[in-house]
Amino acid sequence: MTSPNPSDLTRNALPGILGLEAYTPGMPIDELQRRLGVADVIKLASNESPLGMSPRAREALAATIARDNLALYPDGSGYRLKQKIAAYHGIAADRITLGNGSNDILEFLARIYAGPGRAVMFSDYAFAVYPIATEAQNAEAVRVPAFPPDHAMPYGHDLKAFRRALRERPDVSLVFVANPNNPTGTWVPPDEILAFLEAVPPHVIVALDEAYWDYQDVALRPDARPWLDRFPNLVVTRTFSKIYGIAGLRAGYALSHATVADLLNRVRQPFNNNSLALLAAELALDDQDHVRQSVDLNTRERERLHRKLVAMGLRVLPSQANFVTVGFERDAKPIHQGLLERGIIVRPMGSYAMPEFLRVTVGTERENGRFLSALSDILRL
Ligand SMILES: *Cc1c(COP(=O)(O)O)cnc(C)c1O
Description:
With 381 residues, the chain is of the alpha/beta class. It contains 15 helices and 13 strands.
């Protein structure tokens, strides 16, 4: 192979792409096994469900794989899954768009609404995919300062600041709001989201990313369904990766006005959901008992983790998600490394400009116990 002049390969790449850094995912279990030779590894790094998918979905998948050679393309319209989602939310099927994970939807939105001369707004300390999707479109990212560390909702979204920033920036075409937010776990009360929607000009698309919606206490979580009828510029995204436990299959969706759904479907790959993901998502949505079990485990264990970590003298950000973000008041890298050596993968926050924090997914009682004792060992408590 001739060795190319590297500048030939980058010269015509779009400037937004050249400025990007690839997303750093949580370390896979077998990578740690390979790197450190640790046998018994647990992963609390990517906010996956410790109970996994509905047992009914698992059985149906196994039967499908045994019976079907998967030679046929999936149903590109996702008809059956959309019918289930439509019934679950009480919404017309033509207002649903399916994504290969909700990440897919976030990128569709950027592809439709972002570009040179159009800006995209999101908070500091928000989900890493927002800047990637924005910059890949050569659009400008407008980062809104988050609440300060000593606020009741530290590092959380400040929607009043979003409103002020929107008045300064008429070029903003798309706004991302994660509620609850990743990587902080913080949330915005429903009345503040509503006040924000009322203030946003109708041509600015608001993507309300509800990846962690199910984990919120019932009293704290918004019902965005009526807002979708009042605000045609609202897009709500949900995922099957978190509470439904099928992150490995990739499925998510958006609820929106039918006109926006039509635009989303124009940029969607015709077969963006594979057959197994469609089937598993359908069955997962049906099994709300499994959802309740997963929520109950998370609520109980999130509370316990919070309490035990605070008792260790650590700072724990308030969380309504399936993870806790823990502050050490010093660079958390050595602690991250110490946990890896003990077979526990958590998420370092350096790439989120929060190097003193680690994000820890709420696992099973046994997994959380193992994390807590490894941590107290490292901190020599
Ligand atoms: C995990 C997560 C998603 C969902 O990702 P998928 O592509 O659906 O797996 C979306 N938004 C946020 C804020 C997340 O943390």
